[in-house]
What does this fold into?
Amino acid sequence: MAESHAHAHEPHGHAHHEPEGWFKHYFWSTDHKMIAKQYLLTGMLMGVVGAYFAYVFRMQLAFPGKPVPGYGMVTGADYNALITNHGAVMIFWVAMPVLIAAFGNYLIPLMIGADDMVFPRLNRLSYQIFLVSAIILGASFFVQGGAFGGAWTSYPPLSAKAEYNLTPLGPSLWLIAVALEFVAFLLGGINFVTTAMNARAPGMKAFDIPMAVWMIVIASIMFMASVGPLVAGAVMLLFDQLIGTGFFDPDRGGDPVLWQHLFWFFGHPEVYVVLLPAMGFVAEIITVFSRKKLFAYKTVLYTSIGTGVLSFFVWAHHQFIAGIDPRMANVFSVTTVLISIPIAEMCFVYIATLYGGSITFSVPMLWALAFIGEFLVGGVTGIFLGASGADIYFHDTYFVVAHFHYTFFPIAIIGTFAGITYWFPKMYGRHMNELANKVHFWITTVAFNGIFIPLFILGASGDHRRIFDYSNFPELATPEMQAMRVFATVSLLVLLAAQPIFLVNFFYSMFKGKQAGANPWNANTLEWQCPSPPPHGNFDVLPDVYRGPYEYSSPDRADDFWPQNSPS
Amino acid sequence: MLEHYMKQGSSYASHIDGLVWMIFLMVGFWFLFAEGMFFWLLWRYRKKPGEKAAYFDEHAEHKIKYNWVEIPHRLILVCDVALIVGAISVWTEVKISMPQTDETVRITAQQWAWTFQHAGPDGELDTMDDITTVDELHVQLGKTYKFELASKDVIHSFSVPLFRLKQDAIPGRVITGWFKPTLAGEFDVQCTEICGIGHGIMPAKLHVDTPEEYAAWLANPSHYLAYHY
Ligand code: HEM
Ligand SMILES: [Cu+2]
Ligand SMILES: [Cu+2]
It folds into this structure.
């Protein structure tokens, strides 16, 4: 095993590279760490955009018909464009680039003891395509007719014909942006999987790979396996939009429901594509801060693969009432409910890791624990929707909106904060301010629950989603329900008000934070065994690996950690 | 539990609510159990000076795994089976079976209105005395209705929260289903699939009439003006 990887450990060609211009350094770099930072900052910027959209439409829901400060009046068309692009931005331009591309790029070479990705130029191209996709999406707001407003699921015929959606250009730009984003992640995925397979440090066997790397690799494979049908579908939809083909048009022999199958065949695995990396970060963090070996490493690995495979067979739970043969719903209800088993096992294994630990509640640990505590809510509420009979009532209500935000928010926001606060000292060689981070943590987490708990109740009371003004529905326009909508919006304002604390802390600490050594958390994994921040080429001497990543508190040693590369 | 938030107004509403209640109890148990365990462990194993964390080798881990993984695994499987049986039986009742119906109503969605074609006094659809209304559906308490749902343009979804009924309308198809109203009054019909800029202003009124009210409505001559060719 060790020999076969030896070639990857020859001294790095660029290790002693000549000084480069700032353009080359910041914009044309092939260094995986710089590309990671490009993805991270772009993702954070898009996160601000997605949050701004949420601010505007939540204000409209709380105070319908009143101009929103910083936006103005929200029409029905505006509302649709805002929610559509909020969803698309948060998933495709925040969760994916940050969790997979930024952290995948940053961590995979460092955690497996390599000097870079195996395809560095492909990597650079991936970010550039991603940037173009974001620019196209932004441009779609400024074309004639305005941005696409047919929901992030983009169901035809609404998305296919301008006479229905009244935005002649928006839908095509949106679709092109999404398709380019997929191309960017296909390139990235090829790179992640190949690198993790071929460039590992000598001695790093399959079960010595840190969970964060495993999870990103599994997620990349799932992404690549699921996205093909959707890209084909996107091309067909684009043809329907632009040259009048009828793939999804019943008047021309097409079938609108076909798009839903293609979309959700991708869309459901996609949920796990973003979930798994976050679970990986959490595994790294809870082991370090409870000084415990990850409980049942192989179970975690096998259940995540199992969940990944099973998640390819549940897609039609999004379509129970969408006009599919109702008998088909039975099959998909069974597969969906069964997925509760591996997911519950993962949760139990993580909780069991705390057993017998010595737990410090540092900021990354708080985020990782919040992930577990909050994701559980998302998990159990999903059961209501997977049970076909109950989904008849809950489908397309705010119960669904609350459910999937209890999965996505822990993944994309809590998981990201966990990752950033944990690896910041490595990325920038400095610590973030702990007190500011704790204040930010508590406000964000409490306010998050304040937003979405009322939405469960609103959904149970019949609030259907994607409605810009409930005053047209007497059953939904009661003062109690409006009070809940206001409560959710106020909670969002509180949440947003806390984010500058983090942003200021982030940029300030980058330059002025307390110096962090190579291994401030006393962690075992390889990224902590090279300087902070790691130089181009990462390691002074490429490491050899002698043991698994989670040998904490071993009785044979005085230290409570045991780096993977330490010979004894 | 759901009836606390939305009244039950169809023969199957209480069955759906019962399923929801069963799921609530089951997942509620697991949720509280997991969160309780989680917070207890956090408290119990918080860092204390001079105490080192435990280290479990493969053998020790194997034993703990039985309690932490194997047992919950089996219990959850049992819950899943109960849940699936419940879900499928309710689903079959509402969406697969078609009981003996008294009358048929044709529902057509379009951007952004609902058209309802009622059978009229003779109880037969597609006859001269059919009553066609816009955004106003009249049904009689206690009768069993079959509906034929269609769309003229994009996908819409016919939803009556009171009935716990929801069904997408697909252009190019006629989708059938049924309901039996059990509560008289005026209620909301919603469109629950985004259908363009007017999606938020696509409500309709559902009138569940008592036999007398229904007879009075049928007798209203204004329905038949359109037929004076
Ligand atoms: C910043 C806090 C957030 C708030 C307050 C928020 C709020 C909302 C609300 C109220 C809706 C429903 C709008 C409607 O149906 O009328 C929505 C939709 C959505 N959100 Fe969020 N959200 C937040 C963050 C996120 C995150 C982090 C993600 C994913 C990573 C996300 C993904 C989505 C998606 C996919 C939709 C569906 C869009 C559609 O209906 O097409 N949101 N959000
Ligand atoms: Cu799904
Ligand atoms: Cu609609």
